[in-house]
């Protein structure tokens, strides 16, 4: 159901529903064959609430696809930058782009005018979609944006020079035929964090994210059509694609969203208590804030599965969460470029501090700088085997940057840029980013290991370790 070939098409042709979460498939099951829960459930702090079934999602995303194709004049392969907070329109537009074959480029709401200009120029995007907050920043750089043709605003009011999404959605026809796409056609472009140089464009295909995150949903997230899944990630990050779009909807689960101005432990705990959320995903830092706040007095009656990723989870935080809630935290590890590389899944023994074992279909190893596999227990580069066959869920390339793409390949492996250790049981242990490793008197020191040791002391609330130049030791 997740990867239906188009009848009569040549080899490698797929309908866009191979990548889009199977909204249309689950829509056909809402006649009693699927649990009577929403497909999308959104709330905010003002008391507003939106609930959509898969049928309503199908209706709205087909209309939105027509908005992009007709008034906006976008075609298959065109690129659109979408900078929106956690509002329902972000989800509609995400799926609408897949229906039309348009390449979706998310951005966080924290981007400045300079950031937006860089992304518009680098991506050659023909359209930008944002709200009232960032529209002035877009207009300020518009004279120098030679590729941008259309501006679409998600707003109750109008703005000169901008098309209004809500107004166009109301009058758009509801009939739309999915554009036929190939599995390797581009679907998403993410700008990486830019920790070493300016942000790079990681291009993903309909296969790598659309199907790759389906695997995560089934195994790491352990989702079923009866689950209500809340992921707190910002819409600009790849984790949102994983846990707020592809993984839950490809499993027939409900996507739950609480649009909060900022992370606040009391609000998080109250939401987990008030709503029947079964699966919860948030960053390790957020779990740290929650256990420091204390959640023993809250009753999470429906919650059964907790996951985390994006940064290493300190074992102390995992232990405190278990003590306060009775629930384990299943850590996963991945990158913008890779989908989920390693994970702790249901039924596995959890080793606190470990990222778990390799996720299917990856062959993950620890290798040296030449790409040779190191013995178990030795520190090296965390790497994914790409030869003789490149995994379908690995990103396609760094767009317009072949040198950077080539630099990540050593021998038969894609080098993640992270350092780690694989133990005798196949569990992976994170040491640090290759460019974060501290070299002191010939010793390679991973900041995370030191941070984990420090945070175990009762007097330490949080810790961060960086190097300091030393004339004798180097660092």
Automatic annotation (TrEMBL):
One annotated GO molecular function: fatty-acyl-CoA synthase activity
GO biological process: acyl-CoA metabolic process; fatty acid biosynthetic process
Compartments where located: Mitochondrion
Principal location class: mitochondrion
Pfam families given in the database record: AMP-binding, AMP-binding_C
Annotated SUPFAM superfamilies: Acetyl-CoA synthetase-like (SSF56801)
EC number(s) reported in the record: 6.2.1.2
Residue ranges annotated for the AMP-dependent synthetase/ligase domain, each copy included: 38-385
Alphabetic keyword roster: ATP-binding, Fatty acid metabolism, Ligase, Lipid metabolism, Magnesium, Metal-binding, Mitochondrion, Nucleotide-binding, Transit peptide
Reaction(s) this enzyme catalyzes, per UniProt: a medium-chain fatty acid + ATP + CoA = a medium-chain fatty acyl-CoA + AMP + diphosphate
Domain AMP-binding enzyme C-terminal: 449-475
Highest taxon in the source lineage: Eukaryota
Catalytic EC class: ligase
Segments passing through the bilayer: none
Any single Gene Ontology cellular-component annotation: mitochondrial matrix
Cofactor(s) listed: Mn(2+)
Family affiliation: Belongs to the ATP-dependent AMP-binding enzyme family.
Protein name: medium-chain acyl-CoA ligase
């Amino acid at each position: 159901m997740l990867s239906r070939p188009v009848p009569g098409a040549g080899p490698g042709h797929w309908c866009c529903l191979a990548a889009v979460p199977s909204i249309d498939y689950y829509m056909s099951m809402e006649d009693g064959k699927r649990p009577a829960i929403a497909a999308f459930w959104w709330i905010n702090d003002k008391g507003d609430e939106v609930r959509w079934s898969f049928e309503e999602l199908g209706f709205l995303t087909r209309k939105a696809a027509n908005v992009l194709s007709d008034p906006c004049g976008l075609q298959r392969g065109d690129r659109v930058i979408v900078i929106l907070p956690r509002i329902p329109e972000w989800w509609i537009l995400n799926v609408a782009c897949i229906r039309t074959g348009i390449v979706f480029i998310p951005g966080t709401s924290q981007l400045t005018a300079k950031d937006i200009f860089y992304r518009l120029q680098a991506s050659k995007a023909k359209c930008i979609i944002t709200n009232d907050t960032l529209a002035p920043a877009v207009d300020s750089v518009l004279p120098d944006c030679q590729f941008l043709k259309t501006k679409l605003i998600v707003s109750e009011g109008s703005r000169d020079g901008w098309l209004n999404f809500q107004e166009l959605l109301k009058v758009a026809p509801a009939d739309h035929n999915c554009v036929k796409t190939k599995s390797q056609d581009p679907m998403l472009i993410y700008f990486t964090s830019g920790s070493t140089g300016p942000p790079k464009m990681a291009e993903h295909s309909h296969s790598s994210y659309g199907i790759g995150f389906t695997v995560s949903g089934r195994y790491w997230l352990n989702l079923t059509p009866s689950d209500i899944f809340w992921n707190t990630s910002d819409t600009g990050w790849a984790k949102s694609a994983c846990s707020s779009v592809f993984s839950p909807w490809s499993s027939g689960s409900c996507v739950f969203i609480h649009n909060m101005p900022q992370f606040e432990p009391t609000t998080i705990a109250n939401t987990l208590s008030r709503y029947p959320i079964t699966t919860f995903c948030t960053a390790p830092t957020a779990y740290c804030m929650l256990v420091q706040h204390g959640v023993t007095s809250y009753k999470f009656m429906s919650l059964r599965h907790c996951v985390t990723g994006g940064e290493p989870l300190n074992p102390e935080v995992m232990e405190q969460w278990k003590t306060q809630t009775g629930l384990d935290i299943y850590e996963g590890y991945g990158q913008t470029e890779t989908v989920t590389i390693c994970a702790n899944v249901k039924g596995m023994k959890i080793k606190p501090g470990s990222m778990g074992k390799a996720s299917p279909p990856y062959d993950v190893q620890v290798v040296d700088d030449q790409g040779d596999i190191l013995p178990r227990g030795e520190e090296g580069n965390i790497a994914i085997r790409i030869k003789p066959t490149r995994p379908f869920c690995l990103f396609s390339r760094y767009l317009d940057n072949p040198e950077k793409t080539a630099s990540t390949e050593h021998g038969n492996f894609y080098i993640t840029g992270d350092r780690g250790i694989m133990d005798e049981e196949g569990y992976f242990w994170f040491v640090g980013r290759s460019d974060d490793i501290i070299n002191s008197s010939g010793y390679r020191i991973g900041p995370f290991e030191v941070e984990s040791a420090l945070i175990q002391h009762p007097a330490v609330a949080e810790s961060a370790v960086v190097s300091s130049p030393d004339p004798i030791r180097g660092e």
